[in-house]
Amino acid sequence: MEKESKRFHIITYGCQMNQYDTGIISEILKNEGYIPVNNERDADIVILNTCAVREHAEKRVMGRIHSLGRLKKRKNIKIGVVGCMAKRLPELLEIPEVDFVAGPDAYRNLPVIIGREGVFEEGNPFEDYNEIWPLNEGISAYVSISRGCDNFCSYCIVPYVRGPLRSRPVDTILEEVEYLVAQGVKEIILLGQNVNEYNYKGVGFASLLGMVADIKGVEMLNFLTSHPKDIDYNMFMVMAEKKNMVRYLHLPVQAGNNRILKLMNRHYTVEEYRDTVRRLRSILPDVTLTTDLLVGFPGETEKEFMDTLALVEDIRFDHAFMFRFSPRPGTLAALMEDKLTDEEKIKRLRKLIDVQNRIIRERNKEMLGKSFRCIVMKPAKKGGYLCKTWTGKYIAVSENVNIGDVISVKVTHLRGNTPVGITQKDKEE
Q1: Facing residues of 423 across strands?
Q2: What residues contact residue 415 under an 8 Å CB cut-off, 6+ apart?
Q3: Is the dihedral of CA 414, 252, 224, 11 positive or negative?
Q4: C-alpha to C-alpha distance for 1 and 7, rounded to whole angstroms
Q5: Does domain 371-428 have CATH number 2.40.50.140?
Q6: Do residues 307 and 256 touch, judged by C-beta distance below 8 A?
Q7: Which of 186, 255, 334, 393 could cross-link with 219 by S-S, CB 3.0 to 4.6 Å?
Q8: E strands along 106-183, which residues?
Q9: Do β-strands 406-415 and 371-379 pair in parallel, antiparallel, or remain unpaired?
Q10: Which of the 8 DSSP states describes residue 167?
Q11: Residue ranges per domain, the chain?
Q12: Rounded-to-integer distance, Cα 43 and Cα 77, Å
């Protein structure tokens, strides 16, 4: 491929791990002389880094492929589909607009794949990209501590498309964090499909968390995502002891009924989940707790759905990512009898969203009149800036502040469900 045809643009769909992988792809291509550009109109190669967790995500990708096809008719560009959807659907190569397809473990070979065209590459199932560290442009950066998943929740496609769990060596994780801090990063977010399963030569997640927290320059430390069945309570102690740890935990419960949890292959009960939350809040009273909730699972009765609502009312999550069930071909749940109509699933989802949104507002009202130390993270969509507290919540400020500043903010009101505040300096003036 000639030098002038090496401009590339990546369009990312899906989770934080996909965002991190986009950085890996970019570093691999740049090391081979490829040049990143900010939009597909200026690119010679457009790569869609895809998600396969839900049908809606895949439909969005298909729509984007066809819209890029119109660009391709006007300009000689190459279109590649990579990531989870690519691994699940190698037949994407049959779409006329698509030139190459590669799974999440094949990124190292992308420079060769791009040159060959018309190929699907699955990649090495034990790939961990250890020595490839994505360069971060902001003050917050993700660091993957593991890849893959061995849990096989009955509704989830991730283990099939991302392969088996493999933990990265401790030293390479610490070196990557030190590298990012040297580049000006202030917040580190450790990533894994299930961080609690991290284990490298006897070093578990709680120990790794303490090591990262002790690195000079890490002002804020966070992690995603934990599985309730693998919670190590030593992790809560590290969160309480280290001043740079964000008192935030994302702990997906998925459902509030034991029969449904068993069908989901989650390996914990509602009672065990409640006990984990009780112990968490006893150690970290001001913790921000968020979750994932899935409604309309095959066979879910109205009463079982109401059990989920009751759990939400009782736990009072600070935020929740809520979805209705959509079968993923190849998973166990896709083989289960699903009698619920889409209309009923949507009705239940809307009811759940209404309840959770009310709780979010009530929880955020508790912040009114209180002051929080936070880091200015990024511009807010409606003007001003968003600051992140050490409890993991965002506060909007309209003052003239700088990204990366550590400031004290007093919450004065809510805009929708978003806390809005003023800096303590302006309050004194």
Answers
A1: 409
A2: 382, 396
A3: negative
A4: 11
A5: yes
A6: yes
A7: 186
A8: 119-123, 140-144, 146-147, 166-167
A9: antiparallel
A10: E
A11: 3-123, 140-365, 371-428
A12: 7
Residue 81's pLDDT band (cuts 50, 70, 90) = very high
Fold of 140-365: pyruvate-formate lyase- activating enzyme (3.80.30)
Reported residue count of the chain is 429
For 89, residues 6+ apart whose C-beta sits below 8 A from its C-beta are 52, 58
pLDDT per position as a tens digit, 385-423: 999 999 999 999 998 899 999 999 999 999 999 999 999
CB atoms within 10 A of CB 183: 13
What are the distances in angstroms from CA 82 to CA 74, 107, 245? 23, 8, 34
195: left (phi over 0), alpha (psi -120 to 50) or beta: alpha
Distance CA 87, CA 81 (A): 9
Which two three-digit tokens encode residue 294?
């899935």
Task: Please give the span between the terminal C-alpha atoms of the chain, in angstroms, as a whole number.
Answer: 61
- What element of type H or E holds 372? strand 371-379
Q: What are phi and psi of 36, to 5 degrees?
A: -75, 140
Per-residue pLDDT tens digits for 89-147? 999 999 999 999 999 999 999 999 998 878 899 888 889 999 999 977 789 999 999 99
3 state SS of 41: helix
The token pair at 39 is 């939009």
The per-residue pLDDT for range 140-173, each reduced to its tens digit, is 999 999 999 999 999 999 999 999 999 999 999 9
Closest CA to 286 of 390, 396, 419: 390
Helix (H) or strand (E) holding 55: helix 55-74
Name 101's bridge partners. Answer: 81, 120
Dist CA 160 CA 147 (whole Å): 12
DSSP class per residue in 165-203: -EEPPHHHHHHHHHHHHHTT--EEEEE-TTGGG-EETTE
Tokens of 60: 């969005």
CATH number at 3-123: 3.40.50.12160
pLDDT exceeds cutoff 50 at 72: yes
Residue 77 in contact with residue 71, Cβ under 8 Å? yes
Asked whether the bond before 288 is cis by omega within 30 degrees of 0, the reply is: no
- Token output for 366: 């508790």
Instruction: Judge whether residue 34 has pLDDT over 50.
Output: yes
For the record, the structure tokens of 295 come out as 């409604």
Contact 37, 8 (CB under 8 A): yes
